[in-house]
Design goal:
By secondary structure, the protein is an alpha+beta fold. 48% of the residues lie in helices and 20% in strands. The chain is built from 32 helices and 30 strands. It has a 7-stranded mixed beta sheet with strand order 14-26-25-24-15-22-23, with helices on both faces. The protein has a 6-stranded antiparallel beta sheet with strand order 6-5-7-13-8-11, with no helix packed on it. A 6-stranded antiparallel beta sheet has the order 16-21-20-19-18-17, sandwiched between helices. β24 (629-633), α26 and β25 form a beta-alpha-beta unit. α4 (85-113) runs antiparallel to α5 and α23 packs parallel to α27. The radius of gyration is 36 Å and the shape is elongated. The protein starts with a strand and ends with a strand.
Length: 855
């Protein structure tokens, strides 16, 4: 998306005009204009010169944003968000009020409040009228921008809000000037006084002053909607301390090069993304992730720009600089999202495009109708002017973008990044959440969960012997045992004659004793296993855990169970989703038993086991028939499913926030942020609905009231001055309402409501699931698979072994899918074309396992 800055826009009609003009340029596939940030995003291959020319021909200005570097991007964003309006409007308002107060004292203070007039005005209605005209003219000159922009738009056939204000004020002034000329032709002082009361000079000035008040309040509130984004920009460090030629040198951060060494002392901000080479510290990453608890950093860990080093000295190597840093990507993502439009805004945009011409027509018809009904010119004109000045296209145009901007800002502060306004809207409408198991629900790496000792063996003894045996192995399960031993302060003993038997287990000599570890079958072949250990093994397997047996000198020593454990906060987060009326489905490539065990612990409503990445996409397609689907995964292996879902969420992105397949990126690896994102989206949608209701309701009630529809029946009408005041407050109310999003506690589940079914309007029950045959399967969703083979394989001990066999088999041309099971000691193959048994056997054998037969 190419970004442009747009100048000269004053209301929703302006942004609609620019959008229409640019959309007509050859090569432009889509265009989105943001009135809030005065920016425009253009998709397509149209040259920038053609886009700028189209904007200029529409009566506005445009220039491309400089995205050549991170610093340039930040400058452009700061420039777009800078509040230049408020100071100018404040000066205009102060000057306008100064002259307006004098005008009101002359026109109304004497007659209504009995205020004294200067001697030269006493008894001279014509002089009073001339003074009123001069004062009103001064206020009009001060606020000439309304007239310049308004009439320029009218002449170009693109009237806007300024046109309505200019027409209303000018009509009051011109009519009053005509009455003034009639006064000068009258010789009767009584008649002159009568005509004096029919002047609208004060209305012409008051309209401009009140609209300026509204504009200033609106500008101040709009500035607050972008506070979150501006605070992100202010986090960007300005300097970095790098090591060059052995000496520390302070340089501007934009001069830091990739691969350069930089140092960070306690209390300093980290200048660019990097990797810790030396030192350890606690780093506050709340600016990026929303997590207030500092994260410990040691050599090999990644650090991000704009995070704060709190305690130790760090020496780091720069890995991402300039526009590639995590902070720059976040700023760019939030800015891009602000330049997009939510689908809910389309109806407001359509109305805004024809709103001003329609209002002008209504004002003209109103004036004519009252004249035909026999009312005097002044009365009829006042009704027409009231219609002009009470109408507010800005409230319609701002209803959605201000809420989207504030919502995006709140999300960014909490480490939740919505790439587009569409994703922010869609997340709140989610009815089904599909969760990838590994790394999303679980920690993504095996850990020791249970230790069962044989009679007479202590836990410390068993763990020490297991660690000595596993220390030489590279298997993921071995690493889990070593982490547990290290955590318990147990050091492995030196071993000799180490042998790894692929698919079976390990052997080694330690302190003259023979240690053996591995599967039940293998260890049971070298010793007799006690019944209690075998029973414990069955129970652990039912829970989805992998039992590792250990023996010493032909005697069973015990079992260490290893599993990819569920994250501590996952069950609570899934429970929150259920309380919101959202059905949860877990997708995994594991076998049915393991998947069911993890699903029970996590608390999901449904489990889909044995599914591959492309199969996940098919499952998402099936789920989409039952409601709006959100897919949550790591953004890499789950890319097809993330793309297929209504909303794709990449969780645990960390520094890699630019995940293309995801619509929403969550910085932390916490599933609770998914429910927080949905909660924020729902709050944003609620604010948008309130704003749109107010904008439509205001205009639907205000325009008939200003036209005098209720004067004859209810005796209720409105003057141009009250109309201008109402117009001023309407946009201010919309923007202020959007700012309430800053008060939303997106992690507070106490006010969660269940989502209603989009079709029936009924509350979605927590366990409302599609048919089990649609989701409870063990295939990858491919079609046209008519050939099946079952391979009997020995040596698989755990899900990691299954993954290894699966990878080896699916690399063969003709194998559409492979579903190994270490418990059944087999692999079920789906073939898209004939494959020789010898090819299959060779693949499995090369992976380190033994094929016993193929059926």
């Amino acid at each position: 998306m190419k970004q442009y800055s747009v100048t000269g826009m004053s209301c929703a009609a302006c942004s609609a005009r620019v959008e229409k003009a640019v959309s007509g340029v050859p090569g432009v596939t889509s265009c989105s204009v943001s009135l809030l940030t005065n920016s425009m995003g253009v998709e397509g291959d149209a040259p920038a010169s053609a886009v700028i020319r189209a904007v200029e021909e529409a009566g506005y200005g445009a220039k491309p944003k400089d995205g050549s570097s991170a610093e340039a991007a930040v400058r452009d964003a700061e420039d777009a968000l800078a509040d230049r309006e408020t100071p100018v409007l404040r000066r205009r308002l102060i000057a306008s009020i100064g002259f307006l107060l004098v005008l009101m004292a002359v026109s109304m203070g004497h007659s209504m409040l009995g205020l004294p007039l200067p001697a030269f005005l006493e008894g001279n209605p014509a002089a009073i009228a001339i003074l009123e005209m001069l004062l009103a003219a001064v206020v009009m000159v001060i606020n000439q921008k309304f007239f310049i922009n308004g009439f320029k738009g009218l002449l170009r056939g693109a009237p806007n809000m300024d046109t309505l204000v200019a027409l209303g004020s000018a009509a009051s002034f011109v009519y009053s000037t005509a009455v003034l000329f009639r006064m000068t032709a009258e010789n009767d002082p009584a008649r002159q006084t009568e005509l004096l009361h029919g002047l609208y000079f004060e209305s012409a000035a008051m309209i401009l002053a009140l609209i300026t008040v509204g504009k200033m309040l609106e500008a101040r509130s709009k500035g607050k909607t972008t506070d979150a984004l501006r605070s992100l920009m202010r986090l960007a460090p300005k300097t970095a301390t790098v090591v060059r030629d052995g000496a520390e040198t302070v340089i501007p951060v934009e001069e830091v090069r990739r691969g350069e060494i930089f140092v960070v002392r306690p209390g300093e901000s980290i200048p660019v993304d990097g990797e810790v080479l030396e030192g350890s510290s606690a780093v506050n990453e709340s600016a990026l992730t929303g997590e207030s608890i500092p994260v410990d950093k040691a050599p090999g860990d990644a650090v991000s720009a704009a995070t704060i080093n709190q305690s130790g000295f760090l020496r780091c190597e720069a890995t991402r600089v300039g526009e590639d840093t995590t902070l720059s990507q976040i700023i760019r993502m939030v800015s891009d999202a602000a330049a997009t439009k939510a689908p809910i805004a389309k109806i407001a945009d359509k109305v805004s495009g024809i709103f001003v011409p329609t209002v002008i027509a209504i004002a003209a018809v109103t004036t004519v109708v009252w004249l035909l009904l026999g009312r005097e010119v002044g009365f009829a004109l006042a009704r027409g002017i009231s219609v002009l000045v009470i109408s507010c296209p800005c409230a319609l145009g701002l209803a959605t973008p201000v809420a989207i901007m504030v919502g995006n800002g709140v999300g960014a502060k909490n480490g939740i990044l919505f790439k587009t306004a569409v994703s922010l809207e869609a997340a709140g409408r989610t009815q089904i959440v599909a969760l990838d198991k590994t790394g999303t629900i679980t920690k993504g790496e095996p850990n020791v969960t249970d230790i069962l000792m044989a009679p007479g063996v202590t836990e410390e003894e068993l763990l020490a012997e297991a660690a000595s045996l596993e220390a030489m192995s590279e298997h993921p399960l071995a690493r889990a045992v070593m982490r547990k031993a290290e955590a318990d302060g147990i050091l492995p003993a030196a071993v000799a004659d180490f042998r790894a038997l692929p698919g079976n287990g390990l052997e080694a000599e330690a302190d003259g004793a023979r240690l053996v570890g591995g599967s039940e079958r293998y260890v049971g072949s070298v010793c007799t296993l006690p019944e209690e250990l075998i029973a414990g093994s069955r129970r652990l397997a039912e829970e989805g855990k992998t039992p590792l047996f250990f023996a010493k000198d032909g005697q069973a020593r015990g079992i260490i169970a290893v599993a990819d454990t569920v994250k501590e906060d996952s069950p609570a987060a899934i429970r929150e989703l259920g309380d919101m009326g959202i059905r949860t489905v877990m997708l995994t490539g594991d076998n049915e038993r393991t998947a069911r065990a993890v699903g029970r612990v996590a608390g999901v409503d449904d489990v889909v086991a044995g599914v591959l990445p492309d199969g996940k996409e098919a499952v998402i397609r099936s789920l989409a028939e039952h409601g709006r689907v959100m897919m949550v995964g790591d953004g890499i292996n789950d890319a097809p499913a993330l793309t297929r879902a209504d909303t794709g969420v990449a969780i645990g992105a960390g520094t890699d926030v630019a995940i293309d397949a995801a619509d929403v990126v969550v910085m932390k690896s916490s599933l609770s942020d998914v429910s927080a994102a949905i909660r924020l989206s729902r709050a944003t949608l609620r604010i948008i609905h309130e704003n749109l209701f107010w904008a439509f309701f205001y205009n639907c009630i205000g325009i008939p009231l200003a036209a005098g529809v209720f004067i004859e029946t209810l005796g209720i009408g409105i003057t141009p001055m009250f109309g201008a005041a109402a117009m001023s407050l309407s946009s201010f109310c919309v923007v202020t309402n959007a700012l309430r999003l800053n008060l939303v506690k997106i992690r507070d589940a106490r006010r969660d409501r269940r989502m209603k079914n989009a079709v029936t309007g009924e509350i979605v029950p927590k366990n409302a699931a599609p048919d089990r045959e649609d989701t409870n399967n063990s295939n990858n969703g491919k079609e046209g698979q008519t050939m099946k083979k079952v391979m009997k394989i020995e040596g698989m001990m755990c899900p990691h072994c299954e993954a290894r066999v699966k990878k080896a088999l699916e690399a063969i041309d003709g194998v559409a899918s492979a579903a190994p099971s270490h418990e059944k000691a087999e692999a079920v193959l789906e073939l898209s074309k004939p494959v020789a048994d010898a090819v299959l056997i060779a693949a499995v054998t090369d992976a380190g396992y033994e094929v016993k037969g193929i059926a």
